[in-house]
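Retry 2 of 3 after timeout on previous attempt. Resubmitting structure tokens to design endpoint.
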């Protein structure tokens, strides 16, 4: 009998796209308020190193995303930005379709994010929190070493506290990212 062994293959990945955070709900003095902050679409970028073995991949990524804050408590703001600097460990499950060059996949990731909200030159929030993401995508193999990626991901942070006002405001940051990227096998 012949057996096939799967050899682990290291790779480098990068991606960019657009991110749309959901409107933030906040808890103020134990009361939940909806649409406390509204955000404009922003640009996420990420780079990572991973290893693939058969239908599974494990990848460590560093990502950055910046979104202008459109409204806070119904008031249109200018010069306010939300940014996320993240470090994530992501697991992938690839699904090979016969001899096709297209491989759909699922992704789940855990890690942390530094959430920063700037108003002008004043930092209202600068806090490290837990973060996670789930998503799906497809890779298109264009050569033996290069695969193009297209994915959509839902992400969410742990509780963030804005203590810059007289009453602390607790909220989470969540939303959808759509990314286009490439993986290069070593």
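Retry 2 succeeded. Sequence:
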């Amino acid at each position: 009998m012949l057996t096939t062994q799967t050899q682990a293959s290291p790779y480098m990945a990068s991606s960019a796209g657009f991110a749309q955070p959901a409107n933030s709900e906040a808890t103020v003095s134990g009361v939940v308020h909806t649409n406390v902050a509204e955000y404009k679409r922003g640009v996420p970028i990420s780079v990572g190193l991973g290893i693939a073995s058969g239908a599974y991949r494990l990848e460590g990524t560093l990502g950055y995303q910046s979104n202008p804050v459109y409204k806070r408590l119904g008031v249109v703001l200018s010069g306010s930005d939300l940014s996320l600097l993240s470090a994530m460990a992501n697991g992938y499950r690839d699904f090979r379709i016969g001899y096709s060059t297209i491989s759909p996949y699922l992704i789940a990731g855990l890690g942390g994010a530094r959430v920063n909200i700037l108003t002008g030159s004043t930092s209202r929030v600068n806090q490290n929190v837990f973060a996670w993401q789930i998503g799906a995508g497809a890779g298109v193999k264009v050569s033996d070493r290069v695969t193009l990626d297209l994915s959509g991901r839902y992400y969410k942070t742990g509780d963030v506290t804005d203590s810059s006002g007289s009453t602390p405001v607790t909220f989470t940051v969540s939303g959808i990212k759509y990314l286009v990227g490439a993986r290069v096998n070593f």
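Attempt log closed. The chain has one domain: 9-185.
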